[in-house]
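[audit] Reproducing an earlier prediction to check determinism. Same input, same settings, fresh worker. If the tokens differ from the archived copy the diff job will pick it up downstream; this log only records the rerun itself.
[audit] input (251 residues):
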Amino acid sequence: MKGTLVFGMMTLRMLFRRRTPWGILIMVLLALLGLALVPGFSVENQGRFVLDFGLSGIEIGALVMALGLAANLFPRDREQRTVMPLVAVPLARWQYLAGRFMGAALVQAAALLAGCLGLAAILLARGLPVPGDLFPATLLIVVEGWFLLATVFFLSFFVSPPLNWPLTIILFVLSQMSVRDFVNLVPSRPGLMRGIRLLLPHADVFHIKDPLAHGFQVPPEFFLLAVFYGLCYTAFMLSLALAVFQSRDLK
């Protein structure tokens, strides 16, 4: 376990030295700044608009951050032949995967929380109330981001980064769809489409921006179940990633 933590911290420092996470964070903050400059017609409508689009921007940031952080990690390690000595002596393969994921997950979470603080600052600057559930809503997006990160890691073990991006984005879009919309993609096979949708992740459990923007209270039990669901799906994707990694010949 100690080796995993040390390797995770090494990954964290390596990612912070790269320009990718900083560029994505600046992009998210600039998008929030542009949101702050958009005029509103009433205090109520401004609050709904800022919360809705602000949380949507943070969610898109979670997707881009997952792709930017993880899509190149294993391919670059394999190309530079740094992964072979790591898993040959000091680390098991599960420790390599856990360490890389931990470092990337911490960077991603820090960036998304920075976006949450930026959104709160925009609300305060406009004289709008900051909802008490803003931080829990961001926490759910962080959990969704970790699931996306695990998915990117899984795909990175058998597809190239240029293919990883569209596959992850397609999964992201499909996971946002309702059962009705998903069935309408192939209306001639409703039973099959319902079955496929049942197996795909349901990202709608991570989205509470609509009730938040309209001032509705979200039960604490919902947060706990949504976090549990997201962590279970993340663990499932990491297990698949490890199964693929264990079968890979690194020579």
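[audit] rerun output stored. Observation attached for the diff report: DSSP finds twelve helices and no strands in the chain.
[audit] end
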